[in-house]
Design goal:
It is a single chain. This protein is 36% helix and 15% strand. The strands form three sheets. The chain has a seven-stranded mixed beta sheet, sandwiched between helices. A three-stranded antiparallel beta sheet has the order 8-9-12, with no helix packed on it. It has a two-stranded antiparallel sheet with strand order 10-11. The radius of gyration is 24 Å and the shape is globular. It starts with a helix and ends in a 5-residue tail after the last helix.
Length: 497
Amino acid sequence: MSSQISDIWLETRVAAESLADFVSGARLRLGVTGLSRAGKTVFITSLVHHLTRALVAGRKAHLPVFRALTEGRILSAHLDPQPDFNVPRFAYEEHLEALTSGEERHWPNSTRRISELRVSIEFNSKAWSLRHLGQAHARLDIDIVDYPGEWLLDLPLLGKTYAQWSHETLEAASAAARAPIAADWRGATAAADPKGRYSEQTAQKLARLFTEYLRLAKTERFALSTLPPGRFLMPGDLEGSPALTFAPLPVAEGEELPYRSLGREMERRYEAYKTHVVKPFFRDHFARLDRQIVLVDALTALNSGPAAVRDLENALTDVLNAFRTGRSNLITQMFRPKIDRILFAATKADHLHHTSHDRLEAILRHLTSRAIARAEGVGAEIDVIAMAAVRATREAMVRHEGEKLAAIVGTPIEGERIGDDVFDGIAEGAIFPGELPEDPKLVFRGDALALDEEEAEYRFLKFRPPVAKIAKDQEALPLPHIRLDRAMEFLFGDKLA
């Protein structure tokens, strides 16, 4: 009964906040998420940069698919104060400086907390009703909500008991793809007695070893994705708190755990995590979203091997299952927002020659096929693209042993290597990354946890941001991109009609 009352209160809060949003005027809450290294910060920075600079003379050609701009109907776009006073502001200016600061340019720090930014667009509407009333001038406030995708993977925990979550987590860790990196934690777990007397030292040891397993699984070598609880690797102000000091134990569903036992205390802390961490995120931010883009670093998973690719597929399915999807209407906008458009974007498309972009899209579409079928069944629109919010490379044809190869040219980050060649972060390199398979199913074949360099069919390097180009008027040109305009058109182009 208490759980039902809590759920009713949660829905009431969401409805009240949604109604307040609706009454405030034309606005769109756009969620931006993705798992680690997917490029969320770069995407938002580039998106805002292009929106606020697109009206500078001669810049419209940089966004040819964004129709409201190419039709000349956007009058202005600028940053406004964000609506939520208790949410940190997205550090747009700081991130843009990192991307464009000449020889010191670098990729900005990744998302580790929720943040928000509002872009206000003034435009001339094509709507007959507005033109008939002489009110073609309109405004749209886009509230961009940036949050780690790992937090999204926590939402399914709301429907799971401690015993269910423990069983799933321990089972996953025993699989061939994870057992080697989970060995220390699994050994300590096997030695612990869930019905034995609670000890804070034991709880901290198990939580520490569990967190180390999650951290190792997240590294680029293994690139595993389905690793809740998400805050264990991004604790913030909760670091060291009991809500983040628990770990799975082998307990059966419905098993009676003695008072003050280790298992009972772990269960209590797991429930506290759901109450004080997961539910507030759902209520205050996630449940109010209208549109969503999910950025996917498929190339890192491909670098690591088939086990990482399969794990990414499971993570993306969990992500989409967490969304409140469906066809939006006036009632849902006022009281219970639904995400009616979701864009899956395979990032870092500039690490491939354009001839492989369709194959990258096909791989991502295959990774998300199960989840997309469910979302489309309730009326949500889904699209999949290969994209680079900031393009760090250019294309070229190079000769190698008498054969012409389609290559990409850029400045690899210092320390990146191909074979015995190590890059210094200054010199450019022409790289042939290899071709993705025509059949996307082929990337799932094999059981290796992480491929060694000599085993990999393709190897994608990391590049520095491009050098900012200066136009004749001495203004810096908008950052180069691949299909950012297509993303913009899908996510909010219809709202500017």
